[in-house]
Amino acid sequence: MSRHAVVFSSYIPNREVAFQVGRYFLKWLEKYNRDDDIYIGVNEGSADEWIGMIEAAPLNVTICCVPPNLSCSSDVAGYQAALTGLKNSGKTYDYVWFGHTKGATHPTYDEGHGIREHLEHTFWSQKAAVEAACDSQKFGTFAYDYLPVADPHYQTVELLKSLYPSSVANPIGYVTLYSFFGITGQALEAFLKNADPRFFASNLVSEVGLNRYFFEAGFAWISDMGGYEPYIMSKINSNDRSQFCGLSNTSGNASKVSSSINKWLKDKVNYIITPYPYADNGHVSYLDRRYESFDAFSKDFPDIRPSLNELGLMYRTDKASDQHDMLDAYETYLSKHRDNDIVFAQIGGDLPSFRMWRTYFPKARILWIREGSAASTDDIDGVEVLNASQSDQKLLTKIAHAHRPAVIIDDGRHVANDQVASFLTLFPLLPSGGLYVVEDLHTLSHALRVHFAHGAKTDILQLLHEVMRYIAHGEYGELNSVSELIRPIAPLISNISVFKKIAFLVRA
């Protein structure tokens, strides 16, 4: 008995992009599954050349063409046909891997290639790791990219129970992102042997009533219903306290699914699916509703407030934990201002950052100080754009006097001289307790300095180091020990905190 098998759904129409995707996945299968049994469902509308490509590949393939009456415009029909082929083979396996021709309908090959590479690296190439850690007697579904569901999926659960009447537990409720996942052989075999014949003979979408995303959120739950625990391949963030889920927060999503699994293990029969709000690029989906903005969502659910990092992930700013990871540090300083009508200013940055700031500070006046005509802020109420070069200290002084910001963030050009000049100019103009933030300090590292120092004699980190020594010495500090450039400002600084890539300074 081969330990592994593949159930693969495919749709390759007569388009060059689709053929490129098809060739990619055939090479993928040859690389990782050359000695495994592969069942490929071929959906209606696929080109004849695609079947020829499969037949020519050096693989152990059973081609399972979708009958016209079972066809639908998603991967569901291809998976259904491939599963029928596996069932009819009478063979059993330890692990069955599910995948499909992701990106074959995209307008360009590159559009989905990043996701394909991610799936290959994190999931499909991990056969040995799955064998070592995923006990096929204990676990059912295994995947890398899990996402909690945003609604209870009552209809899907009831339909699954009707299709799998001998199930012994309720499903946990999760999304196996991109419809790439695995099921241990024992869990899958129990379903294939006991499933209602409608699962194989009826159109799962138009006749049974399942939705077109069933194999992303639904089918893998048959393992839970058989009493098998899901196995999470990705890292679980045990410290995650977020209330939202989203595509970028892999470890946070895993933490939420892990929490649901633990609740399910205590009472599999009576477990009820726990939904989480799903946030993406400013939209929120929750309990069968889609909100076009967080403001609209918060009117219905005022007690569910996202952290700053959750907002950063939602709006896809590079400050969030999937990139520079600054927002937890930011929230330490900014949470007390969240509902205050402060003036908040940032030099530089991009639209995602300001969408995040606008949502986090609903009552604040937000100033975007930038040079030239960047992206429009027409869709962000309450963000005022001020056209100014970071090197123009006179204009920055004028802006600070006119608007009196309580928070100033330097996310500008990251040029050493500009960072120093802006700090020396603007910090003294902050009110007592005001906050000054300098981002992207890694640009002053040895590796990047050549691109940002531009021959500067000093930089902001060198000046901060001097002031930190002065502050640390307390009443024994000697102002003469600080360089002349920073000497007038040193007594005005009550606190300096340095985190990865970022520094926070509080005005005395």
SSE blueprint and pairings:
Layout: E1 4-10, H1 16-33, E2 37-42, H2 48-56, E3 60-65, H3 76-89, E4 95-100, H4 113-124, H5 127-133, E5 139-143, E6 146-148, H6 154-163, E7 174-176, E8 181-184, H7 185-194, H8 198-201, H9 221-225, E9 229-232, H10 250-266, E10 278-280, E11 283-286, E12 289-291, H11 294-300, H12 308-315, H13 327-334, E13 343-348, H14 351-360, E14 365-370, E15 383-387, H15 393-403, E16 407-411, H16 416-426, E17 435-438, H17 449-452, H18 460-472, E18 493-499, E19 502-507
Parallel strand pairs: 1-2, 1-4, 2-3, 5-9, 13-14, 13-16, 14-15, 16-17
Antiparallel strand pairs: 4-8, 5-8, 6-7, 10-11, 11-12, 17-19, 18-19
Helix pairs in contact: 12-14, 15-16
Care to describe what's here?
The chain is of the alpha/beta class. Helix content is 35%, strand content 18%. It contains 18 helices and 19 strands. It has a 7-stranded mixed β-sheet. The protein has a 7-stranded mixed β-sheet with strand order 15-14-13-16-17-19-18, sandwiched between helices. Strand 16, helix 16 and strand 17 (435-438) form a beta-alpha-beta unit. The relative contact order is 0.07.
